[in-house]
Amino acid sequence: MSVQSTCPETFDVVIVGCGVSGSTLAFYLASAGISVLAIEKETFPRYHIGESLTGMVRPIIDDMGLAEEMDRRQFPVKGGVKVMGKEAKREFFVPVLHSTWQVKREEFDQILLERAIEAGAQHCQGTVKEVIREGDKVVGVKYQPREGDKTLKTVRGSIVVDATGQATLFANQGVAGQRINYDEFSKQVAVFAQFKNALRDPGEMGDNTFIFHAQRYHWSWFIPISPEIVSIGIVVPTAKVSECGGKEETLSWGLENINPDLQKRVKEAEYGEVRSIGNYSYSVDPFV
Q1: Collapsing DSSP states into helix, strand and coil, what is residue 169?
Q2: What are phi and psi of 157, to 5 degrees?
Q3: What pLDDT is stored for residue 227 in this prediction?
Q4: Beta pairing partners, 209
Q5: Contact by Cβ (8 Å): 239, 186
Q6: Among residues 28, 54, 79, 220, which is most buried (max CB within 10 A)?
Q7: What is the rounded distance in angstroms from the CA atom of residue 87 to the CA atom of residue 75?
Q8: CB atoms inside a 10 Å sphere around CB 85
Q9: Strand 153-162 vs strand 275-278: parallel, antiparallel, or unpaired?
Q10: Segments of 46-136 assigned E as strands
């Protein structure tokens, strides 16, 4: 997918990060005739969470001409979120504004990047090592190409966009404000995996997001991302992970104890690699 060798050195806009926001921005800029380079350090497709799209995303997907592709890939259609209360005694349903999809991010992110390239954006694989500044203005970046060349390459842009998400490039480089973790969430960890044979609700309800609540800071998500696979995550305080003895043990504990409705849904299920992420709730201020 890399077209690095054909990239000129100056663009109207340089975007660092080709996740959902970076590739979507690249598509709209390129569609407007603005020269744009999108730099991504990872090789796509790659695993990622954040699989449940909001209803506000649907008009954007339609505008990008991707609705047919989303259905072709059999991404489940999401009509809302069902929340199951403590001990499964109460539940309520929140519909989305527009019907949308649950996605495998390794596929979805690649779809968006390919669409941006089709619209005229250029793409390089590489890791940004330095932000170039002239006074208070960011005018470019230096990046190390993916192919193993240790020589840093320089690209300049009238505008440089940080779309690196949790990597918080600009904050780390001292361009934006510091990354601020929220006290009430900074000591939480999510452990998660992809499951086969998890029990879903019948009909269209079975494609929706489910949230299972246990107590403060203890909850789980249940997100169908294909006809066969459900993403399930357990969110608990960091201390609980230590108490359980690791991420695999924490996932097992959560499946058994977060909510009885979740417990019955995974009795016959099997899952693959267990992953984890912490300190995912933060802000950067100022961010420009």
Answers
A1: helix
A2: -150, 145
A3: 96
A4: 81
A5: no
A6: 220
A7: 30
A8: 15
A9: unpaired
A10: 77-84, 91-101, 122-134
- Look at residue 103 and give its three-state secondary structure: coil
User: What predicted TM-score, i.e. pTM, was given to this entire model?
Assistant: 0.90
Enumerate residues 6+ apart whose C-beta is below 8 A from 66.
111, 112, 115
- Measured CA to CA, the distance from residue 90 to residue 258 in angstroms comes to 14
- The token duo for 44 is 């796509």
Instruction: State the residue for tokens 């709730």.
Output: 281
**By three-state DSSP, how is residue 234 classified?**
strand
Structure tokens at 220: 């789980």
Give CA separation, 245 vs 138, 158, 256, 262, 279, in Å. Answer: 45, 49, 16, 22, 19
Q: How far is CA 44 from the centre of its chain?
A: 13
pLDDT in tens, 178-188: 777 766 666 78
Beta bridge partners of 162: 16
> Do residues 165 and 18 make contact, with C-beta atoms less than 8 angstroms apart?
no
DSSP secondary structure letter of residue 76: P
List domains and CATH numbers for the chain. Answer: 4-49+106-176 (3.50.50.60), 79-99+183-278 (3.30.9.100)
C-alpha torsion 171→172→173→175, nearest 10: 10
Residue 129: CB atoms within 10 Å? 12
Nearest to 41 by CA among 103, 140, 125: 125
Pick the closest to residue 246 from 213, 217, 274 (CA basis): 274
In one-letter notation, the amino acid at residue 43 is T
Taking only the tens place, the pLDDT of each residue in 241-255 is 999 999 999 999 999
* CA-based torsion, 39, 41, 44, 48: positive or negative: negative
Please determine, for residue 24, whether its predicted confidence score (pLDDT) is greater than 50: yes
